[in-house]
Amino acid sequence: MSANEAPADPAAVKDTPLRNNTKARDKASRVRDSQRASRARKRELVESLRARIAEYERQGVQATLEMQQAARAVAEENAQLRKLLALRGVGQAEIDAFLQRGEVTHTGQLAPTHSRAAEPQLAGPPHPIAHSRNVAGGQALVGASVVSDQTKAAGPTCSDADSAARLPLRSMLETPCDNATAILVQVRGDESEVSIRKALGCIGPGSCVVRNTKLLQLMEEAG
Question: In terms of domains, do 121 and 215 share one?
Fold first, then answer.
């Protein structure tokens, strides 16, 4: 050591390892805090998704039940109207043929046809009793046709109700792959979007949908 060189400060030499240990402890503490916050966010996302799936399932089941009940009510009403028409002397084949044609005018009158219900209007009633019965039958036919039109417009059959209910239910139980990828990027921050889309089953650059159960499974695996 030269005469002009100042001696090293013993206190500074001793403090260097201490400062390094302090920095290491602070860094480890920050890492632990970050990991805890990340796990908390994952738990919140998982619980939120679970709640959404449960609510969508409940809404879908309720909608299906309501549609099935409406379809059964319309079917029962049509059955009762058919029985009434049978009592009035109108056969099932004639009812079916009439409903297939749907020949009802806007004023609620039967359109001119060669059916038994229309003949009294063309030639005049030979017997008052028979004419009265045919007119009543024609009015009932109009009612049956109206119920049939209502059934087609607003009251699907049970099988149609199931199909109609499955469409909104399916959309509620699925998530666009872009949204699912964004969620998993937050949960699995160290993984690329390409690998995440592959794990979701998304192939190609286009947009698709994934089931929420699959998304929930991947989130739980990441936790």
Answer: no
Is position 111 within any domain? yes
Mark which of 135, 152, 172 sits at the end of a domain.
Answer: 172
Cα separation, 41 vs 35, in Å, equals 10
Q: Residue type for 163, please?
A: S
Count CA atoms closer than 13 A to 44's CA, side-chain side. Answer: 8
Structure tokens at 17: 């390892």
Q: pTM (2 decimals)?
A: 0.35
54-64 burial by CB neighbour count: b if 16+ within 10 A, else e?
A: eebeeebeebb
Cα angle at 191 between 187 and 197, to 5 degrees? 85
Residue reference for tokens 């409940």:
58
Beta carbons of 138 and 90 less than 8 angstroms apart: no
Quote the radius of gyration of the chain (alpha carbons, Å): 38
- By the 8 A CB rule, do 132 and 89 touch? no
pLDDT tens for residues 96-151?
A: 888 888 654 444 444 444 444 444 444 444 444 444 444 444 444 444 444 444 44
Distance CA 17, CA 70 (A): 80
Which tokens sit at 132?
Answer: 């009265």
